[in-house]
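Example record used in the benchmark description.
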Amino acid sequence: MNNATKKYILIAVLVVPFLYLLYKLILVGANDPIKYIFTLTGTTAMFMLIATTMLSVIKLTKYRKILGLGAFCYALLHFVNFIILDAELDIEFIIKESLDKPFIYLGMLSFFILAFMATTSTKNGFKKHSKKHKIIYLAILLVIVHFIMGQKTITIEHWWYLLIFIVVIGVKGKILLSKDY
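Model output (structure tokens):
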């Protein structure tokens, strides 16, 4: 199987959570659609972000951009859900919620970091800003904290995300410090 085919398969896999979201919202129905969209898009974006950092550890960097852009797309859906469906485009409400609930501005900060990374992921943009793309680790940490604060509790799922993040940081740090890198 050639690289182009593998990339198309990866893109198809990345679309699956979105298709599941549509299925759940349109055909099955969700009790609280806005909350369901928040949960599915946020969790998917976080998972894809963490997976993106893991790709370089396992030497699959050629798929990192596609996965990172997929994570951004789900983060964008998460953000749009907040702005349009939850806040109903009410700027005053958005500002008030952001000031009252710190997890919202942590989420927004991580979203804007991802937006920067997505817009600079072109060949020329990445060449110019590649060192700045290391900010992904801050974005992931902010997303995990955003997720925990949004749930108002810490569950075993949160601990798994934190553990995986710590392991990736540890492995990446070890790779960066090795003489072979």
